[in-house]
Write a structure and sequence with these properties.
This protein has 11 helices and 4 strands. The protein has 290 residues and is α/β, with parallel strands linked by helices.
């Protein structure tokens, strides 16, 4: 399968409870990974709400003012505001962005994702209390609950048979970025499989049981690379779709994007916005080979 230009299509890594057969779980997470368990609650609590919310019919929104996007100043200001004792500051900044017509997808990718990563770094460096990060992430859940209906209004086409399985490598702890990527695939008309229960299963068993056009696997650290090599091989051997496309992502591929090919994947995309574009390219490659 032709390799596509690699980068990183998942802004964060994701988590699984355990793995079976070819997919053996790595060592237990270190204390530094405890924060990831909080990030995981975002996916477990809010993403099912996101899916339900953006599929509900909504009135057409009024035409916004020209968008200027999320700036570095917005990002720098949002971090202390989301950690502040009251809600007024971060709510005001968010309302200002929406009033300017900043697309919801930009707020997802250019504000919420980097803020979640920065909160993790701040906690690991002892610059913020664990309880404060917990409160901040809870507020970000509220932001996503508020934004999701607006994000989903542009979903106007059926899945049309396009199915993607999104999973973390076993032992990965973060799920915030994977959840955002799933939203972009749904918006592009894909059927997305990969809820909390599914993520604890053996990927090879899943692709053996059901048809998927593409599988996306995220990994956050280099120790997962050996697993990816064997895991991707097992997925290809087991898949009902003998030409299944394989995407990888996560922080490890940001630093060394060429490793996407080294682990046997077909490539990655720049971010959640580009991930469906890459998946479509993989489908086109498959059709050309038929």
């Amino acid at each position: 399968m032709d390799r596509l230009t690699p980068a990183s299509f998942l802004p964060d890594a994701a988590t699984a409870g355990h793995a079976c057969s070819e997919f053996e779980s790595p060592a237990a997470p270190t204390p530094q990974e405890r924060l990831a368990r909080i990030v995981r609650t975002i996916e477990q609590d809010i993403i099912p709400r996101l899916v339900r919310a953006h599929r509900e019919p909504a009135a057409a929104p009024a035409a916004p003012a020209p968008a200027t996007g999320v700036t570095t100043e917005d990002l720098s200001a949002f971090v202390p505001l989301i950690l502040a004792p009251d809600d007024a500051g971060w709510q005001g900044l968010l309302e200002g962005l929406l009033a300017k017509g900043v697309p919801v997808e930009d707020i997802y990718l250019d504000l919420l994702s980097p803020v979640a990563r920065e909160l993790g770094r701040m906690w690991e460096e002892d610059r913020v209390a664990f309880s404060d990060v917990t409160v901040a992430l809870g507020r970000m859940q509220r932001v996503m609950r508020t934004l999701s209906p607006a994000f989903g209004r542009s979903v106007d086409q059926p899945a049309d048979g396009r199915r993607i399985l999104l999973l973390p490598a076993p032992g990965e702890q973060h799920t915030f970025g994977l959840s955002i990527v799933a939203e972009f695939f749904r918006r592009a008309g894909w059927e997305v499989v990969g809820d909390t229960e599914t993520r604890a299963a053996d990927p090879a068993a899943l692709v053996r049981r059901e048809w998927f056009d593409v599988i996306g696997i995220s990994a956050g650290i280099e120790s997962r690379l050996d697993w990816l090599k064997s895991g991707i091989s097992a997925v290809r051997n087991a898949s009902r779709n003998r030409a299944i496309g394989v995407m990888v992502g996560g922080p490890v591929f940001v630093v060394n994007p060429e490793r996407a090919g080294e682990v046997g994947a077909d490539g990655t995309a720049a971010d959640g916005r580009q991930a469906p574009v890459l998946a479509e390219q993989l489908l086109e490659q498959r059709l050309r080979r038929l």
